[in-house]
TrEMBL record:
It comes from the Bacteria. Keywords: Acyltransferase, Cytoplasm, Iron, Metal-binding, Transferase, tRNA processing. Its cofactor is Fe(2+). It catalyses: L-threonylcarbamoyladenylate + adenosine(37) in tRNA = N(6)-L-threonylcarbamoyladenosine(37) in tRNA + AMP + H(+). This is tRNA N6-adenosine threonylcarbamoyltransferase. Coiled coil: none annotated. Its EC number is 2.3.1.234. Substrate binds at I142, V143, S144, G145, G146, D175, G188, D192, N282. The keyword Cytoplasm applies. Required for the formation of a threonylcarbamoyl group on adenosine at position 37 (t(6)A37) in tRNAs that read codons beginning with adenine. Is involved in the transfer of the threonylcarbamoyl moiety of threonylcarbamoyl-AMP (TC-AMP) to the N6 group of A37, together with TsaE and TsaB. TsaD likely plays a direct catalytic role in this reaction.
Amino acid sequence: MINMENKDVIIMSIESSCDETSCALVKNGREVLSNIIYSQIDIHKKFGGVVPEIASRNHLEKISQVIDEALEGADLTFNDVRAIATTYGPGLVGALLVGMSNAKALAYSLGVKLIPVNHIEGHIYANFIEHKELEPPFVCLIVSGGHSHLVYMSDYGKYEILGKTRDDAVGEAFDKVARTLGLGYPGGPKIDALAKSGNPNAIEFPRVYLEKDSLDFSFSGIKSSVLNYINSCKMKNIEIVNEDVAASFQQAVVEVLSVKLIRAAKLKKVKNIVLAGGVAANSGLRNYLISLSKENDLKLYFPSIELCTDNAAMIGSAAYYEYISGADADLNLNAVPNLKLGEKRYAGSK
């Protein structure tokens, strides 16, 4: 039974799209009561990246524990929960199914709504948790290991994709360059840390802006440039300064991302710009955008480090706005590993 005397909407959300098992309790879309995250990074390090089958098995092992810890951390019971939210795509299909199966079982047993959430949308909504005053419209740069999007958010749940990557996602490029430098996995934080000791102007890596006025991205070229530079140095017996390579690579990527975000904001005539996704934790990107946004009289928002990575709190925030608009999936809900931003692919009322 739901405690109807409590008018607050408390949603339990589950996120398992890749290698984090997470459960959160979120009140009214913006207040996080608990947010438990179990990361598999140490498990996948030895493989140099996420192994889908191993990820799925670890989700199975940890998800019940994570759900219990989330309830305990919020000092709540299942009777306080108005709806169960789950990521249903995009992501690794096996990993997604673990979270979804638990969410469907809970929604059915509790007699509450089942709210499907797009993982990419969740990253945007992390900013609503961090910045209570933030409201649409704004332009958002979503950058992670699997996604690079420039999005105009005109209202809750309403998106216009202005640009996206044509090849590698930016996080993928960071991982590949880190692997080339022998830094290991995950590459993004390691490149960022190393870059702080390097000279960002030491090596002239290409800034790929594509066609005039294009807001798309391409990172395969700079990845190849780094590899060619390293191979050339080895053949010529020239010392490779990893710190300079990391700093120069990161600066080239950061400039392209930042310039296109500012350009998109001017195109849509908005004053607020938002950063989201795992790569939003990159200190070089944050610092460069802080400076550039001030120069262009724009207000920049980004989440705390914990909310940049995959977590259930951001899913709970997005789910709240789906909930109040009438979303309610049936138990035939299935994973959609290639789900696109703004796309709804489930049966149910809304």
